Amino acid sequence: MSWWAIDVRSAAEQRGRMSAWLVSRTGHAVEERDDGTLVTFAPDEASAKALVTQLECEVDPLAETQRRLLEPVDWSTRWRDGLGPRRFGRLTVVPSWLPEAAHPDQHTVVLDPESAFGSGEHGSTRAALTLLERLLQPGQLVLDLGSGSGILAIAAVKLGAARAIGIENDPEANQVAIRNADRNGVSGRVEFVEGDAGILAPLVGPADLILSNILRTANTALLPSITDALQPGGRAIFSGMEQAESSEFHQALRAANFGVIRESLDDGWWGVAARGKDGNDGNEMKDQKEGQRPQPPSRLSRPSRPSPL
Asked: What is the pLDDT of residue 27?
């Protein structure tokens, strides 16, 4: 189907009536440009001609109109426009269709999110990647709760984790994640399982680091399971929350005996890293925020800072 645009120019006093009429006839929103031109759309040339004829008879015979054939758009791939590599310190996330994906290096994640969440373009994913790149230590076991496209689990092993396990309740997303792991050559170190993260996380742990890029309510509900799934003193990275929710989640962390060690903010999306009970971070980096360039604790290696999907 080839859509047509119809540009309508009429006297200023007629525009309100004209706009309401176009919306009622087409069922589409009407664009009003700076010069007063109204733009509406029709699914084919015959419909566009009929709309113009009806407009001239019923609304304004003096209106100027112009019909334009629109270029066909493949909306299944159009969403890719404008996406490019994202850099997070040592880590780079590259969409699979870009030339840079042809020869990835050790710290490059080649990703095609398809229908799953997690492309590196959303602020919540970027906040999680920022904290992951800062805090992951080589050889760790990582759990990724609500793993979506697999971006965080794959990034973890690219950064040196011995193994990562993603838990996702959407079987279609898991298939996307498996393809992304294959694409990155890490299938032997990354596994994706389907099910309830609250039930499965303690069964596949204990983990050194847990990632949970979901919603605040889900993150809060998962805190007991995350506690059970962590090594003593292990760390968890939480994202998927807006900055305005930080105070409430801080309270939930304290109630669950987690101590905050670092925070990250990206385009209004807030992420936080915390250490579980029996940890040792009380005097290390409490409530440090990305952007203030805090010094890391001496026992952590200092990776470069990452650049969020």
From this structure: 80
Residues of the domain holding 176: 81-275
Residues 185 and 253 in one domain: yes
Domain-located, residue 90: yes
Q: What is the pLDDT of residue 32?
A: 85
Q: What share of the chain is helix, strand, coil (3-state, %, to 5)?
A: 35, 25, 40
Show which of 46, 69, 92 is a domain's final residue. 69
In a domain, 259, yes or no: yes
Could you check whether the bond before residue 296 is cis, i.e. omega within 30 degrees of 0? no
State how far the Cα of 160 lies from the Cα of 166, in Å rounded to an integer.
16
pLDDT for 75: 47
Q: Which two tokens stand for residue 185?
A: 């050559």
Counting Cα atoms < 13 Å in the Cβ hemisphere of 185 gives 9
pTM of the model: 0.65
**58, two tokens:** 């019923």
Q: Render pLDDT for 82-95 as a digit per residue (tens, 0 to 9).
A: 566 677 778 778 77
Q: Which tokens is 236 given?
A: 């968890």
Residue given tokens 């009622």 in the structure block:
24
| Residue position matching structure tokens 């800062």 | 134
Distance of CA 150 to the CA centre of its chain: 12
Give the Cβ contact number of residue 257 at 10 Å. 14
- Would strands 163-168 and 141-145 be described as parallel, antiparallel, or unpaired? parallel
What sign for the dihedral angle of Cα 53, 57, 59, 65? positive
Number of domains in the chain: 2
pLDDT 10s digits, 29-47: 788 888 889 999 998 899 9
Where residue 185 sits, what CATH number does that domain have? 3.40.50.150
**Is residue 205 situated within a structural domain?**
yes
